[in-house]
Design brief:
It is a single chain. With 314 residues, this protein is an alpha/beta fold. The chain has a single domain, classed as Ribokinase (UDP-N-acetylmuramoyl-L-alanine:D-glutamate ligase, 3-Layer(aba) Sandwich). Helices cover 39% and strands 22% of the residues. A nine-stranded mixed β-sheet has the order 5-4-1-8-9-10-11-12-13, sandwiched between helices. The longest helix has 18 residues. The two termini are 25 Å apart.
Amino acid sequence: MNIETLNLKGVCFGEILWDNLPTGRKLGGAPLNVAYHLNKLGIYTEMLTRVGIDSDGFDIIALCKELSVPTALFQQDSDQPTSTVEVHIDEKRDVRYEIVYPVAWDFIAFGEKEILAVENADFFVFGSLSTRNDISYLTLKELLKVARYKVLDVNLRAPFYSKERIFELLGYADLVKMNEEELGLVAEWLGLDVRSRDQEMVEVIMDRFNIAELIVTYGAAGAVYHSFSGKFSYHYPALQVEVKDTIGSGDSFLAAFLFLRCQADREILPEEILEFAATLSGFVTQSNGACPNYDAATINRFEWLNLLQKLNLK
């Protein structure tokens, strides 16, 4: 892996927050995690979000600058607080979230600056959670009108979603990422037999909403990339790692996928893209938090150690 600054730009839209973990607070929010990793990988990616004019908000802005996440599109709210989430991790390392509502990112506004940023970006990443309030959702719909390549991260957090809104979001997307549970729920909403093969459910969903590409993540079982235009599906297994926590593993997978997928000047095979996505996701899973520090040498060493482990198991 080589990390170099690429002539690509992205914008991630939505929630930014403090995850209050048993071990202390960590910067979080799925779109923020994606933006962090894309910037680490060399793609200039702005985060369009909103924080409160409070100590939590000031701390988030300062930390994002320290992490080299651009803050030019951060909005500040004098009425709503910065978002916080109580995170509970069980003995199986599975994660449960308690998300406060309403907060500043529920009120993301749009203007000329925001529209120009999205218009000039090579891709636009947005998640379903950020649409729980109509103000941010109306802003998102305006930005989707000018976005070139629209990437939806389905992120269902009860009670902050509805079938109607998820269906509407799916209709906008060029690329969709969802997990196995979310795939089953969308299929159920469509009246499909959830005992059907995942491939069959995916084909119906992609056809119904005219989705060109869809990624389904399966945790320790890896991920499957489905291409409508290429008419193929490709499964790549997850790396076998010691799990510290699963926070942000899917976000890093998406960032790594976009990092290679959007390099139109290079011919990159789907298996190469998925291999790198699985590698970065595995590194994050065996690290503490969603945004661990790393560079090319760190990821290369991690990949090498995992290769050695595979060889020793044979």
